[in-house]
Amino acid sequence: MTFRSLALSNIRGNWRSYSAFFLSSVFSVMIFYIYAAFLYHPEVISGYIMAASKIRTGMVFCEYIIVIFSFLFVLYSNSAFLKTRQQEFGLFSLFGMTKVQLRKLVIYENAAIAFMAIVVGIGLGMLFSKLFFMALTVLLKLEETIPFAAPVKAIGLTAGGFFVLFMLISIWTALCIGRTEIVDLLKAARKPKGQLVFSPWLVAVAVFCLVAAYGMALAMNGGTFIILALPILVTVVIGTYFLFTQLSILLLRFIQKRASVYYKRTNMIVFAQLGYKIRDNARILFIVSILSAIIMTALGTVYILQIGGKKGILENSPFTLAYSETGLNTHDVIDPAELKRIVAEDGFTITKEAKAAGVLINRYAIQWGDEEFRDSESDALILSAADYNKLADATGQPSIQPENGKVILVSPFFRKDTKPSGVVKGTVNGKTAQFDISGVSNAKVMNWLQSNYYTFVMDDFSYIELTSGVPEDQLFTMYGYELSDWENAAATADKLSKQVPEEHQGQIDFRRAGNLEQMNETVSLTLFIGMFISLLFFIASGSMIYFKLFTELQEDQAQFRALTRIGMTKGEIRKIVVTQVGIVFFVPVVVGISHALFAMKALDNMMESSNWIYSFIVIGIYIAMQTLYFLVACSSYMKSMLRGASA
Q1: 170: alpha, beta or left, given left = phi > 0 and alpha = psi -120 to 50?
Q2: Residue 286, number of CB atoms within 10 A of its CB
Q3: Do the bridges between strand 476-483 and strand 422-428 make them parallel or antiparallel, or are there none, so unpaired?
């Protein structure tokens, strides 16, 4: 038997253990090739697809992430394989195989796995690249579908890069073989597990780090992000590591002392074995927890930014279409009748319509309390309470009632430390005017139209007195229109903008639908690109647990074989296995969810929004995917366990 045939025979014999590693490697190669196929696509390289520049940088970044992650994943997998095969290597050495021959065998095995993973990965990449290009065509709003192509550079980069990656790690791990004596290799599988021990001090460190990290996350805002971001990251990583290596053992000890729980049915076997599984797999559970937190936080952040972005657009632009004119009925910007005709022609209906006229206070200055007047070179708007409250009713804002002879400042941009009372002075219709400010209101009832950045609301009687000498053609008039299905009105808004003379372009705000379309395009592309990286992380993290289960399969089979001899039924074995595998699968997910929720809450604080609840949508999807993975892994593991237990 040659080394090549022996290597292939070993792969076939251990295929169930190799399968998770192989499939994860195939997925990594496939995603890398798909991204590379787009980056080296002839029409992208030539610049024919101009929109490709929007995502090219993101895809290059993703390629680096895939390579780094694949390197770490393959390195871990190979190291774990070597540890589980110590007895096998001991037998080979006993039969006369030298260290050099043993290393050669490992390199042959890894070369065979690498070759198969690369071939299958590139093949699947070619198969699914057309679907990828079609999806990008939709997201980039291209008129023609990106044609299928299999660039030679993409194939060469993927095949060469991953083969070098696999072989470098294989050589490194092979060099680590042979440092242990034969007798130790043969006894490796029969070494006693030892007692489960923990350090009270390290348990305290775990609790302190997690509590401190969560506390800092809740306290973090836009001003403290730079200060707290790194300490939160460090404390979360340290706390999570000691959670699995130390705190988990303390919790199991606590359960063991609860006789009513520990000695109930098969719980003693479940928890006795679970302690060793968690201890032996602590690093894997730690890595999976961090990966789960990264996946959910990244996707949740993009999703929350999309939700928050739309809310922000609606807050900044209460109306789909808004514009201002000088004069009550001049229509020098756009004729309302023409606007309504174009809107109806494009299939939209106007659901709300608002009009309000006010007077400008020129070169205004504001004084708060005993402070000096703060001069401004711009204008502000004075509205009557009646007109303001009509706009407030149309946009769902609370109405206000100013005191007689005083004004209320309305602006979503005023400083939060602004004092509640002050004075504003300026020029109204060429005459100096001064008014007391009785309060402030953080609201926005009309799109920003240059001179309404600050709006002062005055009681109706005082407003009539103020404007009695102001001619109608000097009033600042605002129009607002809300459209049905406004999310798809970007083309209509652009058409209306072209109807406005160049000198009046600064007096319109038709950008709401366009801003939403641009934001959705960016978010959709980010989600689309990031989804594959998240899937890669998800499959790899699940594969680590799956792989670890099967590396301990022979040991577990021996234990359950002994238990069946003393009368344990298959149903009881099934219950023990499902409970243990379920805990190992879902504990890191629960820890990752906890980390992600606090990260989302910190993001909410920084954005000064209340979109935190939307993160549960992403978390729900992740739990559903993890449950599906668990069912597949548990079913496969159960079949192997029952087969071994009954042998």
Answers
A1: alpha
A2: 19
A3: unpaired
The per-residue pLDDT for range 243-261, each reduced to its tens digit, is 888 888 787 777 777 767 6
Helices (H), 429-569: 460-467, 490-497, 512-551, 553-565
Query: What span, in angstroms and rounded, lies between the C-alpha atoms of 133 and 154?
Result: 15
End-to-end CA gap in the chain: 29
Q: Is a pLDDT exceeding 90 seen at residue 208?
A: yes
| Half-sphere CA count of 250, side-chain side, radius 13 A | 15
Contact (Cβ atoms closer than 8 angstroms) between residue 196 and residue 249: yes
Cβ-based neighbours of 443, under 8 Å, separated by 6 or more: 392, 397, 398, 410, 412
The per-residue pLDDT for 383 is: 92
Residue 379 and residue 428 in contact, taking contact as beta carbons nearer than 8 Å? no
| CA–CA dist 202, 242 (Å, integer) | 7
Who contacts 409 (Cβ-Cβ below 8 Å, separation ≥6)? 366, 424, 437, 439, 440, 441, 454, 455, 456
Half-sphere exposure of 3 (CA within 13 A, CB side): 15
What are the pLDDT digits (tens) for 12-45?
A: 666 666 676 777 788 888 888 988 888 888 877 7
CA-nearest of 542, 500, 525 to 20 is: 542
Question: How high does pLDDT run on average in the chain?
Answer: 80
β pairing state of 422-428 and 350-368? antiparallel
- Reduced to 3 states, what is the DSSP secondary structure of residue 478? strand
Q: Is the dihedral of CA 526, 527, 528, 532 positive or negative?
A: positive
Cα distances from 67 to residues 63, 113, 288, in angstroms, run 6, 17, 18
In whole angstroms, give the CA distance from residue 273 to residue 262: 12
Chain-centre distance of CA 534, in angstroms? 9
| 3-class DSSP state of 263 | coil
Strands (E), 564-626: none
The 10 Å CB-count burial string (b at 16+, else e) for 589-623 is: bebbbbbbbbbbbbbbbebeeebbebbeebbeebb
In sequence order, which residues have a C-beta less than 8 Å from that of residue 225 and are 6 or more positions away? 606
**CB pairs under 8 A, 24+ apart, for 55-61?**
55/136, 55/140, 55/525, 55/529, 58/525, 58/526, 58/529, 59/35, 59/529
Q: By 3-state DSSP, what share of the chain in percent is helix, strand and coil, each rounded to 5?
A: 70, 10, 20
